Amino acid sequence: MADSAQAPVQEHWSETNGKKYRRGSRLPKKTDTRPPVPAAETPKVPWTWEEDGMTVIRGTARSAPGCHNVCGILSYVKDGKLVKVEGDPEDPYNQGRLCSRCLCIPDYVYHEDRLVKPMKRDRADRGKDKFVECSWDEAYDIIVREFKRVVNTYGADKIAMCQGTGRDIHQVTRLNACVGSPNEGVPYFAGNSCYLPRIASMACMLGGACVMDCSQFLPQRYDDPRYTVPKYCIVWGHQPFYSNADGFYGHWITDLMKRGMKVAVIDPQLTWLAARAGEDWLRVRPGGDGALAMAMLKVVCDEKLYDQEFCDKWVYGLEAVCERVAEMDLDDLCEKSWVAKEDVQRVARTYAASKPAAIQWGVALDQQTGGQQAAHAITALWCITGNLDVPGGNVMGDACWGIEQPNWTGTWGWNELMTEEEQSKRIGVERYPMFAVGFKNLSSNATIEAWQRGEVPIRAAYIVTNNFLATMGAQAEQQLEWYKQIDFIVVSDLFMTPTMMALADVVLPAATYEERDGFGGLNAYRISCINKAIEPVGDSKPDNTIFLELGKRLTAAIKPENQDIAWPWDDVQEMWDYALEDGGFTWDELRESTWKYPEFKYRKYETGDLRPDGQPGFRTETGRAEIYSMVFHHTSWSGLDPLPSYVEPVESPYSAPEDVEEYPYIVTSGARVPHFFHSEQRQIAKLRALHPDPLVYLHPDTAAANGIEEGDWVWLENKHGKCKYKAAFNDTYDPRVLQAEHGWWFPERKDAAEENVENEQEGLFGVLESNINNLVPFDAGVSGFGSNYKAMMCKIRKAD
Questions:
Q1: pLDDT at residue number 304
Q2: pLDDT tens, residue by residue, 307-336
Q3: What are phi and psi of 285, to 5 degrees?
Q4: Picking from 17-26, 160-169, 459-468, which range would have the lowest pLDDT averaged per residue?
């Protein structure tokens, strides 16, 4: 390790619109070769004003608390206190609409249980409520001391920065890089099973990701003459009004329905949207989406419903795909999907004939053994029908102005701060080759497999805004025992969670989006400003401030040779100026406009706007949309299939028929509740009153067959574990299907720390009690992407 006194000290400066700031890289600016394109439109709206004795601040609700969206908000402040929040009617994104979680943010900010001071605890007291307050300096000193000890004893790769979903904390990748560790991600989340299977599949096939086009790329939205309303949309495994990736706003679907778009819905239950689909509601078997996707692909190929002209020019592998599906039996695929053949044929034909048409999909595709393969088949559908990157189809969307820093794909700091040797120590890159193709995360399943072998793959962890014992952690009780072996753990969040109570040695209290500046979010449509409305409550700090302050200390202690570039900024705003430099504007300029949209183009494959060499085509080996994936072709030794395929869940009535008699039901999970984001908001009284208990939904006939009445507490069980729920009836499910909510714990059980109970199942706020993940097997298939969170075999019985 270099001596800090010998490390070269060099200033790296940049300038944007006359404002100078330090750069966090020795690499040349991208804007040295390609000047930034001006914003498509700069809105003429103030970002703050006085109204009715209150100060109004226009901004964005990005996080924390967590959410995937970037809704425009108006925050009303009086005497330094947040009074209320309303939707911003002038914001093109959500156009004034807000969910109950945003409307209740004052209750969240000022909740009596909010964490407002850093805390520490002896490692021997994990699981016990024996935290003591400490200063930020002391907390940082402990973290630096322990991380440096792990680096010196085991190596930097044994440090992992672990994040959650939704929260705007992706700059944590730089924190990881500044200590020399390539291991950042979600090591407790089997198969990285939230959007990554779809992203990974699209990236390998197309060189980038697609999203349904609802005019969100255009500041004038539906009024832009370039936009075309889709004639038909398949909403697949998704409840868009409650949950969305891509920063997708669910009510865009209803906006388009009002403008004439017809919908099909693929979902195990009759949702509001499915009811509007009429006969085009396909009640798929949980875990049968891959079979259904291949059935639809077979109909389109066998009946030659594809767009031949588009495929000849821009698609690679049509003939091979047609040969693949010709070998498959349509009746068998329909039987395994639990969807009638005539329904599959009708929806496939309608989709292929509609110009344009779109597919809006959800996490249900990811959370099964064949999640990556199902995404491959569905992506092939919009490619061969010519609905790729056209108005109203599924369009390619890169990060705005190439500004990757706020996105997980950016892996900020990877190239600037780590050597090739350090990068090579990423967990799972040899085991799962898709992780070597453009992805910089550790492989969660390779990490889990290491634990299963009796190894300790992580020795120090920084868990940022993740309550994995309640949400991501399959086999939560087993994972709890694994993570107890880690030498040192720091957890940052807004409330005491079961994960924090069980594992944290140091606690860092985070601020909400109302208490910080920044920009978001995880989409390719626009960049919007997060404006601080109030000062942080107590001694809490924004995540990004924590990263900057802690990053300076960690770099000085562990990799002082990078002090000049790792965290050279004096404050967070200066850091944001650096992050925004490729857009040609500063954070102050972003705040003045609140949001900025880059100029958007359709059919980018025709104009060379997708490829770095400026040539027409896609960022793939063949330059075409590869429904026969050359990435998978070159890595087929690992079991990856270059062609669309169907992989049955590892435990299902078809892959494990011997278990059907004992476990006759399929239980699915993960469907969102509109009042909560995963495990958050359970302590907010207004929201909890709307949904007080963990529910399992079942058909009345299923309940009667098992002696269960509505409102009874029941046990769900399989070979992996059991969990307890309150029964609620829903006769739109197939009688063979149950749906159990996820993310449940009980903040009101404040005295249920481990030292206060004999049974650990009752401790940690009851997180192991109503935890559907107790039934989830560890599984990721050959790709390492996708795992069986939504299709577990089980039985049900009334609780004693």
A1: 98
A2: 999 999 999 999 999 999 999 999 999 999
A3: -70, 130
A4: 160-169
The answer to whether the CB of 633 falls within 8 A of the CB of 643 is: no
Handedness of CA 638, 644, 645, 647 (dihedral sign): positive
Q: Which residue, among 38, 598, 521, has the nearest Cα to 246 in the 3D structure?
A: 521
Checking 762-768 for CB contacts under 8 A at 24+ apart, the result is 763/127, 764/127, 764/469, 764/498, 764/501, 764/502, 765/497, 765/498, 765/501, 767/469, 767/470, 767/476, 767/498, 767/499, 768/469, 768/476, 768/477, 768/480
> H/E element holding 503?
helix 498-503
Rounded-to-integer distance, Cα 310 and Cα 383, Å: 9
Which of 633, 526, 681 is closest to 166 using CA atoms? 681
- Whose structure tokens read 């003591």? 132
Model pTM above 0.90: yes
Structure tokens at 553: 């200390």
b/e code 339-350 from CB counts within 10 Å (16+ = b):
beeebbbbbbeb
**How many residues can be counted in the chain?**
800
Mean per-residue pLDDT of the chain: 93
Please write down the HEC assignment for all residues of 268-329.
Answer: CCCCHHHHHHHHHEECCCCCCHHHHHHHHHHHHHHCCCCCHHHHHHHEECHHHHHHHHHCCC
Closest CA to 121 of 572, 390, 502, 632: 502
